[in-house]
Amino acid sequence: MPPGLGKMRKLVKSDGWDKCWVEGLVPWDLGGPTPVILHLLQTQTLPSGRALVPGCGSGYDVVALASPQRYVVGLDISDNALDKAKELSSSAPNSDHFTFLKADFFNWKPNEAFDLIFDYTFFCAIDPRLRPTWAKRMRLLLKPGGELITLIFPIGNHVGGPPYKVSAEEYEVVLRPLGFNLTYLEDNDLAVKGRKGKEKLGRWKLSIGQSLIYEVVLRPLGFDLTYLEDNDRAIERKKGKERLGRWKLSLSQSLM
Predict the structure, then answer these.
(1) pTM, full prediction
(2) What phi-psi label fits residue 57: left (phi over 0), alpha (psi between -120 and 50 degrees) or beta?
(3) How far apart are CA 140 and CA 158, in angstroms?
(4) Rounded CA gap, 73 and 98, in Å?
(5) Which of 47, 86, 114, 251 lies deepest, with the highest CB count within 10 Å?
(6) Max alpha carbon distance in the chain (Å)?
(7) How many domains does the chain have?
(8) How far apart are alpha carbons 150 and 10 in whole angstroms?
(9) What CATH number is attached to the domain comprising 63?
(10) pLDDT tens-place string over residues 66-81
(11) What is the DSSP secondary structure assignment for residue 77, as one 8-state letter?
(12) Transmembrane region positions (predicted)?
């Protein structure tokens, strides 16, 4: 076990993530942008538009991703993490193209969905029982045709957490049924020291399936999808072919 990991786990369970930032027990913090994100930016293969980084911490990746073509939201529940992120980015030349928000990923309701979401050390930080809910939230927050970038870490067989052990298969189990197609999966050759061999890069595309056709026409008009599940009460001949979707018409500034 890496130094400080045991103490970090105790702090998370007793006092929450914010206390870890107070104590400086943040082994997930790389001290700079994630190398593979910088590589993807250089290859110009990432979607433009709106991007989200849940569990953004110090915000290095938020700042790296932000540009005139891409507005980025960094989300975290820790005041101290966000204070650090704002301090570190206060003089960034691209500061007009990103923001930091304190909110709980699992109940946050933005006014608009995203074209790109980047998840690193977030999936592995949550209780594994919440992973299906994590996937549903990703499904609600991402636009049809949008991309979810996942750095799958830590791959292994260790017991306990956080970070909890993960595998590519565990992502697939929760994402595929919701319309996510895996377009790329490889070992992350740009993983930092100590994470090589324990990390994969997975890229997922949210397909425009039958249930997503509604989103294409409704989201631009201010409708937010708040619930989407298979309809277990469908009549016999429609079972497996029917879903219940609930939409809320937002009172965004443009609609008032």
Answers:
(1) 0.82
(2) left
(3) 31
(4) 6
(5) 114
(6) 61
(7) 2
(8) 26
(9) 3.40.50.150
(10) 999 999 999 999 999 9
(11) S
(12) none
